[in-house]
Amino acid sequence: MSRRAEQYAATVIAQERLSAHLVRLHLGDLDGFVSTGILDEWVGLVVPGQFQSRYYTVREHTADSLTIDVVVHDVGLVTEWASRDCVGEQVTISEPRGAFAPPADSTWLHLVGDLTAAPAIARITEHTDLPTRIWLETDDELPGYLPDGADVTWIRPPAPGTSALAAVVEGLEWPSGPGYFWMGGESAQMRAIRKHLMREVRLPGERYHVMGYWRGVAARQPRAVDPGPIWRAGKAAGKSDEEIWADYDRARES
Q1: What would the pLDDT profile of 12-39 be if each residue is shown by its tens digit?
Q2: Which of 15, 90, 95, 229 is positioned for an S-S bond with 6, CB 3.0–4.6 A?
Q3: Is 90 among the domain residues?
């Protein structure tokens, strides 16, 4: 039986600009939040003025705080908020979920991704004992973001909003012996890479996890209805989240 994910209130206690497109948020006041311990775990994040979640990898979790690194674009539900000073503001996060699960007999680890996957790649690399190779695609300069001594190949995207990671994976030489492959990036490429791993490389399903973090489009399209005013009006009227969702759906259909 499915159930609704738990939600927790949190407060932004610190904020850092790590690179041109990466903002780090430290969240505190996490009463009741418990990490899964899975190295690529993620949480849903709802920021002030919105009621839609966007999902972010937990970069680090301590007894007192949770750190997430937000990739910011020209526009987006979280971009405008995370790009300004948001320290002291309250957000909502969902209970964490994760997928990284290398079999116990793994003798190697390959990690591939773009900037959206960088937080998971960094956390995995910090905590795994497996011999690890990394392919990371980004235009951003990220000195010190990955652990010292990480075996990383830096890749520049062919053009803004595009990726060469599918071709990179198709050209990999695979180690002998059992291992594990983890990848995150644009959803359409992830689907193609899953087929390549299954049909060409013939990796068993338990030997890889490929996750679509975002969807590429020819151009970003404005939302037909801005949910922000509907959310604020609904909260001011004392409506539940379900009632606000219904108002939003009716506005989109009208």
Answers
A1: 999 999 999 999 999 999 988 999 999 9
A2: 95
A3: yes
